[in-house]
């Protein structure tokens, strides 16, 4: 009887120890989790501070650019100045500015557009040049038009949704169209923007394919020549751009994109902050009206900088693109 009691007592002691081990392990896990949460919160807070500092520098740069130059091109300081440097021990900050007005603006096809029918033709031309389905342009026209009666067309999606019939706020909204696959979007996105419908196309930063979307008669060689003629200074005026013989010989033909410019108002700042194995990426939308620069919004669901195809001066500003040795040099 006594032996049985001793055996039962031993089992109780072992159970108590097992419970204590489980409780201690759980407490240790929760402590490690709390430490990691605190580290992540501190990292995000510091990364946001560095991002805001980069936004301040970009704002000053765009202000000075407006004060001292008359056009915007790839070889200006705001475009060529890319930075990857350590703001503190163990930290790296990468930042660069990209022009958004050298791209085809999807909102030209909206009901706010001055000539959405012509803009759709220009978009179809761009789609053809990039080997994508022209039906995307037709669906986009309907997406913007509240009288198109396509509300029910997306009920079979998971989850179901309906067109907003408003301007697109981001190019990624193009993925809501049934005719746009992710592969098609990946090919198109670098050539596109989602800006106010009245925004002009900057011919000093537009790539060859977007230049060709201006009019049906601009062939490959003419578009390449128009881009080459920009050289490092860019066109001083749209008249200089339109003086090319391709426009003079087709002066009676309509242009798909009539609103052209040699400078830009909308820019995107890409910042990437890293510390140890953590990375914080942000794009900031900046609007410049004269010399007044305003931050319109931020997007943290990004993975890389949004370069214009054919940008001749950009370097890789990701914080893992350069070694510590290179940074010290």
From TrEMBL:
<keyword id="KW-1003">Cell membrane</keyword>
<keyword id="KW-0653">Protein transport</keyword>
<dbReference type="GO" id="GO:0009306">
    <property type="term" value="P:protein secretion"/>
</dbReference>
<keyword id="KW-1133">Transmembrane helix</keyword>
<keyword id="KW-0997">Cell inner membrane</keyword>
<feature type="domain" description="T2SS protein K first SAM-like">
    <location>
        <begin position="102"/>
        <end position="197"/>
    </location>
</feature>
<comment type="similarity">
    <text>Belongs to the GSP K family.</text>
</comment>
<dbReference type="Pfam" id="PF21687">
    <property type="entry name" value="T2SSK_1st"/>
</dbReference>
<feature type="region of interest" description="Disordered">
    <location>
        <begin position="302"/>
        <end position="329"/>
    </location>
</feature>
<feature type="domain" description="T2SS protein K second SAM-like">
    <location>
        <begin position="201"/>
        <end position="249"/>
    </location>
</feature>
<keyword id="KW-0812">Transmembrane</keyword>
<dbReference type="GO" id="GO:0005886">
    <property type="term" value="C:plasma membrane"/>
</dbReference>
<dbReference type="Pfam" id="PF03934">
    <property type="entry name" value="T2SSK"/>
</dbReference>
<dbReference type="InterPro" id="IPR005628">
    <property type="entry name" value="GspK"/>
</dbReference>
<protein>
    <recommendedName>
        <fullName>Type II secretion system protein K</fullName>
    </recommendedName>
</protein>
<dbReference type="InterPro" id="IPR038072">
    <property type="entry name" value="GspK_central_sf"/>
</dbReference>
<dbReference type="InterPro" id="IPR049179">
    <property type="entry name" value="T2SSK_SAM-like_2nd"/>
</dbReference>
<keyword id="KW-0472">Membrane</keyword>
<dbReference type="InterPro" id="IPR049031">
    <property type="entry name" value="T2SSK_SAM-like_1st"/>
</dbReference>
<keyword id="KW-0813">Transport</keyword>
<dbReference type="InterPro" id="IPR045584">
    <property type="entry name" value="Pilin-like"/>
</dbReference>
<feature type="transmembrane region" description="Helical">
    <location>
        <begin position="7"/>
        <end position="29"/>
    </location>
</feature>
């Amino acid at each position: 009887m006594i032996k049985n009691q001793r055996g039962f007592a031993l089992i109780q002691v072992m159970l108590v120890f097992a419970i204590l081990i489980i409780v201690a392990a759980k407490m240790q896990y929760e402590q490690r989790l709390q430490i990691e949460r605190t580290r992540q919160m501190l990292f995000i807070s510091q990364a946001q501070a560095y991002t805001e500092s980069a936004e301040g520098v970009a704002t000053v740069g765009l202000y000075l650019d407006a004060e001292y130059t008359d056009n915007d091109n790839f070889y200006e300081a705001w475009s060529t100045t890319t930075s990857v440097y350590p703001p503190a021990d163990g930290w790296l900050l990468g930042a660069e500015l990209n022009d958004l007005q050298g791209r085809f603006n999807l909102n030209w096809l909206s009901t706010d557009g001055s000539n959405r029918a012509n803009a759709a033709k220009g978009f179809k031309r761009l789609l053809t040049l990039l080997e994508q389905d022209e039906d995307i342009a037709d669906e986009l026209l309907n997406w913007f038009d509240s009288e198109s009666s396509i509300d029910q067309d997306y009920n079979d999606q998971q989850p179901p949704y309906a067109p907003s019939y408003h301007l697109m706020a981001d190019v990624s909204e193009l993925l809501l169209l049934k005719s746009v696959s992710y592969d098609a979007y990946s090919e198109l996105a670098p050539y596109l923007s989602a800006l106010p419908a009245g925004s002009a196309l900057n011919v000093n930063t537009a790539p060859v394919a977007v230049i060709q979307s201006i009019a049906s008669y601009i062939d490959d060689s003419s578009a390449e020549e128009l881009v080459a003629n920009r050289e490092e200074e860019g066109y001083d005026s749209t008249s200089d751009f339109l003086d090319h013989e391709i426009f003079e010989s087709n002066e009676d033909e309509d242009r798909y994109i009539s609103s052209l410019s040699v400078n830009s108002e909308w820019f995107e700042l890409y910042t990437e902050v890293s510390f140890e194995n953590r990375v914080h990426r942000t794009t900031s939308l900046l609007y410049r009206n004269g010399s007044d620069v305003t931050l319109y919004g931020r997007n943290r669901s990004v993975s890389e900088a949004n370069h214009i195809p054919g940008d001749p001066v950009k370097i890789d500003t990701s914080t893992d693109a350069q070694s510590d040795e290179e940074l010290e040099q």
